[in-house]
Amino acid sequence: MIKNKKAVVLLSGGLDSTTCVALAQKQGFDVVGLSFDYGQRHTNELEAAARVATVMGLESHVTAKIDLRIFGGSALTDDIEVPKGRSSADMDKEIPVTYVPARNTIFLSFALAFAETQGASDIFIGVNALDFSGYPDCRPEYIAAYETMANLATKSGVEGKDSIKIHTPLIDMTKADIVRTGLALGVDYSLTTSCYDPDPDDTSCGQCDACHLRLKGFREAGETDPVAYK
Fold it and tell me: Which of the residues 64, 120, 129, 179 could staple to 115 if both were Cys, CB 3.0 to 4.6 A apart?
């Protein structure tokens, strides 16, 4: 187990990223959380990220403010209706309008810069290539390519002192596997939110892709999701 070594964890306040925090801590990392206020339609996830950071005892938690609304092109950053009632089969057909163009590339770039300032060479991101919404920046080949680039683009990588490692512990897990893993590590999923279109009181819609996948995961794990749904 690694002792007293920092890792930057991309923390959205959702199920996956919160599980990543627990897994990084289990490996002995002191977790530095990085969240993004990127112009998303709802701030519920930022409030959830702050709750997770406090309850799970992160060393620090930073929220970077960027505005992807200037580009739009996504139901999460533009005046585009969030798809509802889609099945898992529907999600496999095409990349949905909830995809935010190049979001993980942008987020990982910030994480890379933040990691260098923290003296960290480990970055955790909760991407998943099984139960996911078909986003191209959640695939193993994307992460592998980004890690290669990261070690060509940073002082620490070029000097050979510490190579950058992008950890994707959830990438081959089903949502049920993720739920079971998190619960076994004591994760309190009532702190989290996943919904793309929640009510102002943080009640989840239960119909968007994120809700569908989350509920599917809890159901297949034989567990009850503790968050409120319509």
Answer: 120
Indicate whether this model's pTM tops 0.70.
yes
pLDDT in tens, 27-86: 999 999 999 999 898 889 999 999 999 999 999 999 999 999 899 888 888 888 887 877
User: Where does residue 81 rank: exposed (0-12), middle (13-18), buried (19+ CB within 10 A)?
Assistant: exposed
Here the CATH number for the domain that contains residue 64 is 3.40.50.620
CB–CB of 126/13 below 8 Å? no
List all residues 6 or more positions away from 27 whose beta carbon is below 8 Å from its beta carbon.
1, 2, 7
CA separation for the pair 7, 177 (Å, rounded)? 23
Assess if residue 227 is contained within a domain.
no
Our count of domains for the chain comes to: 1
